[in-house]
Automatic annotation (TrEMBL):
Entry protein name: Putative manganese efflux pump MntP
Family membership: Belongs to the MntP (TC 9.B.29) family.
Key word Acetylation present: no
The organism's place on the tree of life at top rank: Bacteria
Length: 184
């Protein structure tokens, strides 16, 4: 029983890191701008908030759906996670430059929303599977905040070396979790 609980926590930690990889890779590019540490801090907190809000909405919607269509909900959640992972992997091969968004005002909101949209889908999947909501949201928020801060700070130094690989890794992890849900 305790091992199952530990396995669930470990799975959520890995999923949190996978979701935060998107924020990390985009933050690398944004970190190449001249940002003050105060702006880096605010950007990380904002991304973390959105990585908690979007899956919360997804979890609530997923729970509603799962009570209505219980048998198909687990399969749908697994397929959704797998599809999202495939999309992240394919996007990692997209060589076209992403436009740099500003880390202030509307640009920060747009940035936070864009990197947390995938966590809505994951939340939807998790809501269908009955995951512990508070723990999942807390881990998603912490991981994305820390990865955003890391990406912004590394971006100031590294000029985008890790961006593609982090999104590829994140997509691969989501694919694996999708297959785990589908095949049990």
């Amino acid at each position: 029983m305790a091992m199952d609980h530990l396995g669930d926590i470990f799975s959520l930690v890995l999923m949190s890191l996978a979701l935060g990889m998107d924020a990390f890779s985009v933050s690398l590019g944004m970190g190449m701008q001249a940002l003050r540490l105060k702006r880096v801090f605010i950007a990380g907190i904002t991304v973390g908030f959105f990585h908690m809000l979007m899956p919360f909405i997804g979890i609530m919607l997923g729970r509603f759906i799962s009570t209505q269509m219980e048998g198909f909900a687990v399969l749908g959640g697994g397929l959704l996670l797998f599809g999202l992972g495939v999309q992240m992997v394919l996007n990692s091969f997209n060589v076209e430059e992403k436009s740099l968004m500003r880390a202030t005002g509307f640009g920060l909101i747009l940035f936070s929303l864009s990197v947390s949209l995938d966590s809505f889908s994951v939340g939807l999947s998790l809501g269908m599977s009955g995951v512990k909501t508070f723990l999942a949201l807390l881990l998603f928020g912490i991981a994305s905040t820390v990865l955003t801060w890391t990406g912004l700070l590394v971006g100031r130094k590294a000029r985008g070396l890790l961006g593609v690989y982090s999104e590829l890794l994140g997509g691969s992890i989501l694919c694996a979790f999708g297959l785990k849900i589908i095949f049990g």
